[in-house]
Amino acid sequence: MPLAEPSQSLDEARHRVEQLKEQINYHNRRYYEEDNPEITDAAYDALMRELIRLEQDFPELLSADSPTQRVGGEVLSAFVKVRHEIPMLSLANAYSAQDLIEFDRRVREGAQGEPVSYVCELKIDGLAVSLRYEDGKLVQAATRGDGDVGEDITANVRTIKSVPLTLPGKVSVEVRGEAYMPKRAFERLNAAREAAGEALFANPRNAAAGSLRQLDSRIAAARGLAVFVYTVVLPERQGLKSHSQSLDWAASQGFPVNSDRGLFTNIGDAIEYVEAWGDKRHELSYATDGMVIKVDNLELQEKLGYTAKSPRWAIAYKYAAEQAETKLNAIVLSVGRTGAVTPTAVFDAVSLAGTTVMRASLHNEDYIRDKDIRVGDTIVVQKAGDIIPEVVKSVPELRTGDEQEFTMPESCPQCGEPLRRLPEEAAWRCVNPSCPALIREGLIHFVSRDAMNIEGLGEQWISALLEKGLVRDAADLYQLRKEQLMTLERMGDKLASNLLEAIQSSKQNSLERLLFGLGIRLVGEKASKVLAQQFGTLDALICAGVEDLTAIREIGPKMAESIVEYMRTTSTLNLLDRLKDSGVNTIYTSGRPASQGDPGSDEAPTASVFQGKTCVLTGSLQGLDRKRAAELVEWMGGNVTGSVSKQTDILVVGEKAGSKLEKATQLIKSGQKPDLLILTEEEFLKRVKESGLNP
């Protein structure tokens, strides 16, 4: 059909636009999903140009689901958090056929005589994403995050050409899958970065994750990402009875579903299929590091249930890492944020799992001694999980006599102060608080995404600030002025303003982010949240003793001693005072953001029925959104999960509550959970107010 003329009627143009959208979407699937294009790039470009021209001539025909809108353009200041209605759990791992046989034994034991079938799917090496559609239109895409809360990446996912923007059935559904970067797109990206003098991505997975976390969606649009969908959330809403049926249904709706999968009635055939893909996987156009085996029957999945971290009805088989021999040229030392001095192997470049590798961590002195690794050795290296390079062993029989044994130095390679090794630890540490390496790594950690999340203030700018003498510790960040930032090389006016705005914004973070950002030895992200929830304020935590801390289930004696030692140090107290004087929040507010909580209140909520309880939300809440309700439960000391089970203590019921309410009622009537509390929205809000909170 010839190109449309502006003089044609609106109805004719509308008909042609729909034709073009259908054709372009079809060819996108052939190219990006099936790797089997039917037309030339020139012919595809001609279709796209015609559609662009029609949309320009008839602006009323331009819609959000048009293929022309996948170029990106929305620039965000930060990512919005998204709470998953159903948690995105990780999978338990298997590394051998025996592991899979044991998995099958557990499944059949739980099935109690019911027939069992397995679906085997390639495990794509990318980033897990959730896609939510309402009335057939893509309304939200989110990362997995910590499984409960992810980040809204809708603007970036809309640019992925294999993701349908509309569904033919106009259904409301959530699907989950893996966003990945095809190998050829990865090679093009790294070639372009190398030509521009930019750092290369280590592997396609990192490239995909980095692309989806771009605040400018035009960057994501240029990266050539793709998606495979592997799960339909709440498939019973679509009348689906099995996982294989769910995948077929998803494909019928236009979702990209990997056709390389198998359905088996016994674990022996499944194992043969898994092992057959061990070598074939390297021929694929995308990276894969294993195979996922899932129970096919959805009712049996529900019967088998879940552990705290993963479903009992699925397991991820990890292929053995590819190995290579190379020569160890040197062992270099680096100092981390906690003072740990880490040796790193530097060796002749080798290709592993599609990437070039030249370095790998040797962890500590004991690791080197146990493996008898010497400078000049021939060593065997691999990528653990096809991602992290590691030294497996040395090859002593190839030694020439010129190899040198490694000895850990007595002084810090950065500041020259003596190193210290505690009797129960493997790492040597620099304990000099003024060590340049500790300060630098500590600041990089403090501003990182999982800590204070100061957008844009990365490693490069931290180094520049230290070199200029503009900061010495975290508190100095909050005293920075624009004229100081403008003295840094390549710092522009707009960037300086954005950095200062990000620094100011971080003052409102909840206490757990500050605790994690401080880098207290042995205290990770989860422990930081537990401490913030239990003590409520930084001042209360400072006053806590070892006995107070070990009374908390998640806090052991070593961690407690580390916390007390840190909090009682003069330099720490001085730092914390300066942070407070700068306006940095020191109160736990994750369940009650400062802008939504009780004005001027620094107190934790009074004891509530939710303290220490597991809560599920179901149905449509009218007075507040689901995310806010979950935040309130957490602030009152509860934990929100996505499904009703014997572990559920409280069910909050909104309008049109369905299967979750039915299951909760059954648990109560059967005596399996007689004390399960069911609250209406009105009753829930009453409990919230009784706890001293403002919904």
Radius of gyration: 28 Å
The total domain count is 6
Q: Which architecture name of the largest domain does CATH use?
A: 2-Layer Sandwich
Q: Roughly what is the average pLDDT, rounded to an integer?
A: 85
CATH fourth-tier homologous superfamily of the largest domain? DNA ligase/mRNA capping enzyme
Q: What features would you describe in this structure?
A:
With 695 residues, this protein is of the alpha+beta class. The chain has six domains: 10-71, Helix hairpin bin (Helix Hairpins); 93-318, 2-Layer Sandwich (D-amino Acid Aminotransferase, Chain A, domain 1); 323-405, Nucleic acid-binding proteins (OB fold (Dihydrolipoamide Acetyltransferase, E2P)); 436-506, Orthogonal Bundle (DNA polymerase, domain 1), CATH 1.10.150; 511-581, Orthogonal Bundle (DNA polymerase, domain 1); 614-690, 3-Layer(aba) Sandwich (Rossmann fold). The chain has 25 helices and 24 strands. It has a five-stranded mixed sheet with strand order 2-11-10-3-9. A five-stranded antiparallel sheet has the order 14-13-12-16-17. Strands 5-4-7-8 form a four-stranded antiparallel sheet. Helix 1 (10-33) packs antiparallel against helix 2 (41-57), helix 12 packs antiparallel against helix 17 (511-518) and helix 17 packs across helix 18 (525-535). The protein is globular, with a radius of gyration of 28 Å.
